[in-house]
Amino acid sequence: IYLKTFKNQSTRIAGLHLVCHLLTTKLETGRHQDAQRPLAPLTDPQLGMDGLASQPLWQNELRVAIEAATDAGNLIRSGFSVRTKDVEDKKNTSDLVTETDVKSEEVVFSRLRAAFPTHVLIGEESSVSAGPGTLTDEPTWMCDPLDGTTNFVHSYPNVCVSIALTVKKQVVVGVVYNPITEELFTATKGSGAFLNGRPIRCSAAQDMKRALLATEIGVTRDEATFHAVFSRISKLVQAMQSVRCTGSCALNLCSVAAGRVDAFYEIGFGGCWA
């Protein structure tokens, strides 16, 4: 889950930092409440700026996001092993979209619209035709319906549905679901991050020489970007234990939250759906 929809680079970076903070926030004392517990809707007149603190777990919104991710995940799973997939290029042959990407977004948006008809929806595939959205204070859902499309095309199992909710430009709910490995990452503002219901934490690594880095090559193929990407990787490989490129930015961020890798960055990543 990360921010490429917006034209301003500082806004993109700020969005990435918000999501990283959400996924890696330390768990508060006390038990995680049942995700089925209904909470006041976002339109509750009592919810002003203080509403973020008074409704920390966002249970109803989290439940709907999980349902949407699960529905889309079922669609992705059904097409995963199909040998011949309907594939089109977007920017180039490294930036792909499939029929499953489009249908998955439709499934997610259908579920979200039914539950929250007044909320703003921004998705990777619809943004191709509608243009990048603008993040406002309004409740806004952001979705990458199939992160790791190239992996999906090659039946490589690092794929996921990525969904996030922002309110007053703060990320309050995050859900990332890999239907192939059956891993469900969830987080709500102020309540920690979870993998299949179990609390997760980022690593405590202090020494770069013993740290594992995740990054991606990206889809831009001009010479300047290539030089920027590989020069950084060359220097980091010498400074760190090793580097991993697995094809999904959302899952890379989740791997940081779960302590599987110690750091992640990417040059020129996409929108809020990422």
Any key phrases for this structure?
seven-stranded mixed sheet, 8 helices, globular, three-stranded parallel sheet, 12 strands, alpha/beta, 274 residues, 35% helix
> If strands are numbered along the chain, what order do they take across the biggest sheet?
3-4-5-6-7-8-9
What is the general shape?
globular
Count of helical regions = 8
Strand percentage: 15-25%
Structural class: alpha/beta
> Mean pLDDT, nearest integer?
79
In whole angstroms, the N-to-C terminal distance is 5 Å
Poorly predicted tracts of residues: 1-55
Please summarize the sheet with the most strands.
7 strands, mixed
What does this structure look like?
By secondary structure, the chain is of the alpha/beta class. Helices cover 35% and strands 20% of the residues. The protein contains 8 helices and 12 strands. The strands form 3 sheets. Strands 3-4-5-6-7-8-9 form a 7-stranded mixed beta sheet, with helices on both faces. A hairpin with a 2-residue loop joins strand 8 and strand 9. Helix 3 (59-80) packs antiparallel against helix 4. It is globular. The protein starts with 8 loop residues before the first helix and ends in a 10-residue tail after the last strand. Residues 1-55 have low confidence and may be disordered.
Give a quick rundown of the structure:
Helices cover 35% and strands 20% of the residues. By secondary structure, the chain is an alpha/beta fold. The chain is globular.
